[in-house]
Amino acid sequence: PDVIIEAQFDDNDAEHGQDHLQDMLADDIKKFSLDTGEKGKAVGISGVHRTKQDDGPKVNDPRLLPDEFLQRTAKVVYILEKKHSRAATGFIKLLADRSSELFKRCAMFSPVDHRVPRVYVPLADCPPDFVTKPEDYSHMLFICRIVDWKEDSNFATGQLAKSLGQAGEIEPETEGILMEYGVDFSDFPPEALECLPQSLPWVISPGELAKRKDLR
Description:
This protein is of the alpha+beta class and 216 residues long. It has a domain at 87-181: CATH 2.40.50.700. The protein contains 5 helices and 5 strands.
């Protein structure tokens, strides 16, 4: 809705005076003025478009504009639920700047999912020989959990949870996916197993079949 009109001022404008320049700007503004129908007609260019009805709405009132001219805005006021598990699968590598103090304390974790930020992880969480033989772990999958992410930093901070194994193998890749989505794939406790039929092989009794609809 805001329109900026640029006008070129030259010697001809100076000869005709300020009134000529104002009339020219008025003609340009009229070309861009919005049609308000029967609610009033804009007059003058005194900085604010006024209507013939002083008590009526102004021409630049957003309520008069069509929806396609409005840009709706909003802001986050509350985090209702954290959907991401803060766990990610990826690889660890040494920092590029070997002369920095951070190089002595942290390694860089690069997630496979590029939607997750890269993470600083403590060297204490890494394998003991990672600093001396980082190439041995270039294809090793790790699980990292993000614990913090400062607003003024491009990288989050986290902790290595465990080593999964070589990338490309079925079991490490599957375990990484399950942990990323927060799926509990641990063994069932004895209390849960005791609720299942103990005499195997188990079959449906004839009485149970008689009162149920067979959808097999």
